[in-house]
Amino acid sequence: MLRSLTSPFKRERPETASTRPSGAYRQGPSGRPTASSGMRSKRPTAPKQPLSVNEHRELLRESLQHSLTERRYHDALNHILGLISLDPSDPRWPHKYGDVLRSLRRNTEAAAAYRRAARRYEAAGFPVRANAMLRLSEELDGAVSRRAESGPVRRADVTVPVTEDQVKPHIKAS
After folding, report:
1. Contact (Cβ atoms closer than 8 angstroms) between residue 68 and residue 76
2. Phi, psi (rounded to 5 degrees) for 161
3. What kind of architecture, by CATH, is found in domain 52-148?
4. Where are the chain's structural domains?
5. Contact, 83 vs 60, CB < 8 A?
6. What is d(CA 38, CA 101) in angstroms, rounded to the nearest whole number?
7. What are phi and psi of 87, to 5 degrees?
8. Rounded to two decimals, what is the model's pTM?
9. Residue-wise pLDDT tens digits, 107-138
């Protein structure tokens, strides 16, 4: 074999009966790849038997993380609501719900979620986090009310003439 025609970085594997050409895989009777042939689905499939509460919680957490990394925020909201129904006193889920709502620019709903999280943080014994959630809620409420009061956005008039005194102010040396 000529070394000059082959890539020096390519590994040579011995050809045996167990090696298949690249792209080859086992197929079912229909000609399509089967689940046992090594093809993986992107999302975990639901098991046949009913899940325990802890298994359901873990599945929801994994699905939530997947939705957030894929930036599918509407799916993430549904997963968070499922986690809230499993852990009604846990303050993390209303907090996360408010964060996702803020990402969707639904600030009034996010402020309400942060207030719920603040109440739950206070009940769980985290007063500093509760205070932070309340301040964030007030900021969002203030931003929404200021935007509503200001009405339509007005643009500044850029054709205002500038006087010579404003361009070169007089500096008095003392």
Report:
1. yes
2. -70, 145
3. Alpha Horseshoe (1.25)
4. 52-148
5. yes
6. 38
7. -125, 80
8. 0.57
9. 999 999 999 999 999 999 999 999 999 999 99
